[in-house]
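so my prof wants the structure for this chain in the tokens format not the other one, which i didnt know existed until like an hour ago. anyway here's the sequence
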Amino acid sequence: MKALLQELVGLFVDDASLALGLVIWVVIAGYGLPWLAIGDWGGPMLALGAAIVLLFSLRKVTRRRG
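here's what i got, hopefully its the right format
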């Protein structure tokens, strides 16, 4: 049963640090961006932050594989 659950989670989450980083960024953006009152820039800021999290994850993976 444990192996089945791990496979199921693995279908959706390949890199745990990437998933955690994106969840943290979405929470920060969800609460912080409206508070900053930046108007229509919320969507682009969310996308930019997600791209930055992805780049940091990619950099970590490429360093690990060396």
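also thought this was worth mentioning. The chain has a mean pLDDT of 87.
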